[in-house]
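Many introductory courses stop at the sequence. We go one step further.
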Amino acid sequence: MTSLPDEVFAIKAIALTIEQRDPYTAGHQQRVANLASAIAKEMDLSDNQGDGIFMSGIIHDLGKISVPAEILSNPGRLRHIEDDGIFKAGCSNRASTS
């Protein structure tokens, strides 16, 4: 794959910020991006397609930004009220971007 443009570092910084909110999954986004990129390479996709797939792996958890930190760091099962809170946050985000 080709080296990524400088603008990508802003996206990676946002992804890192999200990842730091949930230490339990530290490194997950990078691992997903690396694995997806390796699969793209095995599929003989173009460098441009591989770069897009890599970035998709980096930002795939972007929705976590709207989830309260106390829910992200909850080590056990979510209680019904927490589950409802995530659902409502996701719905309000979808409504605001439609």
